[in-house]
Amino acid sequence: MGAKTLYDKLWEAHRVREDADGTALIYIDRHLVHEVTSPQAFEGLRLAGRTLWRRDSVLAVPDHNVPTTQRSDGVAGIADPVARIQVETLDRNCTDFAITEFHMDDARQGIVHVIGPEQGATLPGMTVVCGDSHTSTHGAFGALAFGIGTSEVEHVLATQCLIQKKSKNMQVRVEGEIGTGVTAKDLVLAIIGAIGTAGGTGYAIEFAGSAIEALSLEGRMTVCNMAIEAGARAGMIAVDQKTIDYIEGRPFAPTGAQWDAAVNYWRTLVSDEGAEFDRVVTLDAERIQPQVTWGTSPEMVVAITGVVPDPETETDSVKQSGMRKALDYMRLMPGTPITDIHLDRVFIGSCTNSRIEDLRAAASVADGRKVAANIKQAMVVPGSGLVKRQAEAEGLDRIFIEAGFEWREPGCSMCLAMNADRLEPGERCASTSNRNFEGRQGAGGRTHLVGPAMAAAAAVAGHFIDIRELDEPG
Amino acid sequence: MEKFSVLNGLVAPLDRPNVDTDAIIPKQYLKSVKRTGFGPNLFDDWRYLDPGEPGQDHSQRRLNPDFVLNQPRYAGAQILLGRENFGCGSSREHAVWALEDAGFRVVIAASFADIFFNNCFKNGVLPIVLDAEIMDRLFAEVEAREGYRLKVDLEAQTLTTPAGEVIGFEVDEFRKYCLLNGLDDIGLTLQHVDEIRAYEQRRRKEAPWLFEAG
Ligand code: SF4
Fold first, then answer.
1. Of A153, A305, A371, B145, which sits 20 to 30 A from A262 (CA to CA)?
2. Average pLDDT over residues B78-91
3. Quick check: CB of A30 below 6 Å from ligand 1?
């Protein structure tokens, strides 16, 4: 047989059947469930008198709606009655269908895309789905992972399968060494800036090249997390020794003879030499600088050393009017240096950047410094209870608190502002999340996406600042 | 799912690229555990001048006169025109539920985000992709003529303009079949129970760890 891409291999291993027109039935190994996109799916199941196909494939956690302040009252402590009903509904559905759920007061609770890998519930070679577009995160483990809508959540609950057609193969190569102060977040923002938010539509993207290989699994998750912001439902990275080391010993990971067999199989989860991609994009890692978004779409991004672009220089009229609308919403003038943009709030968290490595990076900037006076709030929201515990064991919480950051309980928080954490109209925020859409962090709020160290640096400076030029504290 | 065959509907233009699902239905409405009732909050941030919360009487809110869909000439529209990358962002099916609840059965755009595109078909909403040039022309025609309607024929895969021009469009055969017949995907998949079981048996031998975790 010919050389295959990683995506080809994952696709073929999960194909239950395929019709002549390419419509296939794909088997799902892991189904992650959260409170927002599942209630209507469980209700549909009940109304049709259907049962769950494979209970042990499902893992549930409330994350989008949970408060990040004190949690000791559990679900009853959610002040917003509508949100409380949603979390209660998840609890009830999981009880009724005997699904494993990490409840709000469980130390393992956290953002669904943080806890899957943390628990070893995400494994190489799996198909992983969740009613959430950032499911692409799990592709960092050499898994085929993608977000689905609620009808598909119901479909997987009832049949363990999805009806799909194969996507095209795209490879994004980042070659060379990234510079000091440049992180996985900057890589992926630069990739999106290069290919556009629809550049990956219809493709499954494999990220490859020496700069990607050099990333930790945390960094790889950050990259795959934002594949969807480039339009690709799935992003993935080949398995290597780092992948295997990360998984070993995690609660849901195989052990003993099963572990050995699994590792043998996982090592095959790479694109073969000479495998063909429908599209290949190559970036030079050395040219990538810390990135900041200036607009209302993740592709509206520039280097920290740059300026807000001028719509007049855009030749495509649709793009030009999109830029004008974005600048109007963001209240920015073309030509403004990015470092002149002052902020009201800073948010460090979300499934893009809330893992231990992210918190360490932010803490190393916060250490010995103070949040600037013009910053109304700088918030750190760990991705899970276990990340929080680890950070506290390392003393990161003290560093943040002493610098004037708030240290919160885990959840999605101000990434999408479904709970009480949100921007007020007109407020400007440096955020480590993944979407700078209008109103994403609160109606009228203005979001600039950055990496965790850049967010912490913006908090202490009060405006964006090149992390590479930060003075010594004191 | 409601069947779709032919629709002769009023067309409304939404002339901006990258219309994301956060804009289509803002997050505060996703707290609902129902599939219906999202219509009044379609494009909520653009449509109203005051902020909205679930459970509010939305008929009492201040409409934004500058938002195109608030213009009386587009009241009752069933077909929405969009630009590139329509429906990008989150997987929330609530975006399609909101469009459907507000009366839209067809969205025509230069391109769609994958998950949104897929979610449309699951809810009897037809997403149609047309070339950017044809989109430019449709936008111009709709704006120039009040009461502009298109006839959408799924079986024939055509759009007919008021001037009688016929524009063809592509649609996946399987999805077309499901939409024309109002078929439920789950029911279709469950016709293959034996194949799914056989796959599981085979896979359990090859990769047993996938069946024994948690
Ligand atoms: S952190 Fe943000 S992007 Fe990630 S799952 Fe939660 S809401 Fe979605």
1. A153
2. 96
3. no
Nearest-CA neighbor of A237 among A5, A421, A396, A66?
A5
DSSP secondary-structure letter at A178?
A: P
Mutation target among B32, B33, B97, B211 for the A interface, most CBs of A within 10 A: B33
Q: How far is CA B44 from the centre of its chain?
A: 16
- Percentage of chain A beyond pLDDT 90 is 95
Q: What is the pLDDT of residue A318?
A: 87
CA B192 to CA A53: how far, in whole Å? 13
Per CB-CB distance under 8 Å, the chain B contacts of A437 are 20, 22-23, 89
- What is the spatial distance between Cα A216 and Cα A289, in angstroms, rounded to a whole number? 19
Res A70 pLDDT > 70 = yes
pLDDT in tens, A368-412: 999 999 999 999 999 999 999 999 999 999 999 999 999 999 999
- DSSP annotation of B5 reads -
The minimum-distance atom of ligand 1 relative to the CA of A63 is 6
The burial class, CB within 10 Å (0-12 / 13-18 / 19+), for A132 is buried
pLDDT at B214 over 50: no
Contact A21 B173 (CB under 8 A): yes
How far, in Å, are A45, A240, A391, A463 from residue A213 at the CA level? 42, 8, 26, 32
Strand A203-208, strand A234-236: pairing: parallel
Phi-psi region of A336 (alpha: psi -120 to 50; beta: other; left: phi over 0): beta
Q: A415 CB less than 6 Å from ligand 1?
A: yes
Decide if A198 touches B, using CB distance below 8 A.
Answer: yes
Measured torsion, CA atoms of residues A428, B70, B95, A431, in degrees rounded to the nearest 10: 0
Mapped onto helix, strand or coil, the DSSP state of residue A209 is: coil
Q: Check CB contact of A9 with chain B, cutoff 8 Å.
A: no
For B10-57, the pLDDT digits (tens) are 999 999 999 999 999 999 999 999 999 999 999 999 999 998 888 889
Q: What residues are paired with A447 via a beta bridge?
A: A429
- Beta strands A446-449 and A428-431 are parallel
Q: What is the mean pLDDT of residues A299-312?
A: 98
- d(CA B130, CA B86) in angstroms, rounded, equals 12
CA nearest neighbour of A409 among A346, A352, A354, A460: A354
User: Do residues A391 and A381 touch, judged by C-beta distance below 8 A?
Assistant: no
Mean per-residue pLDDT over chain A, rounded: 96
C-alpha gyration radius of chain A: 22
A434 pocket-lining for ligand 1 (C-beta < 6 Å): yes
Specify whether the CB–CB gap between A167 and A234 falls below 8 A.
yes
Q: Which of A188, A229, A350, A437 to mutate to test the pocket of ligand 1 (most atoms within 8 A of CB)?
A: A350
- Angstrom CA distances, A362 to A220, A358, A382, stand at 18, 6, 12
Q: Nearest 5°: phi and psi at A401?
A: -65, -45
**Which has the higher per-residue pLDDT, B212 or A123?**
A123
Give yes or no for a contact between A163 and A151, defined as CB atoms under 8 angstroms apart: no
Q: Which of B64, B98, B21, B95 is nearest to A439 (CA)?
A: B21
Strand partners, B108: B81, B128
Which of these, A194, A145, A147, lies nearest to A172 by C-alpha position? Answer: A194
Question: For residues B78 and B147, what is the distance between their CA atoms, to the nearest angstrom?
Answer: 12
**Residue B80 phi/psi, 5° resolution?**
-115, 135
Residue corresponding to tokens 């194949």: B195
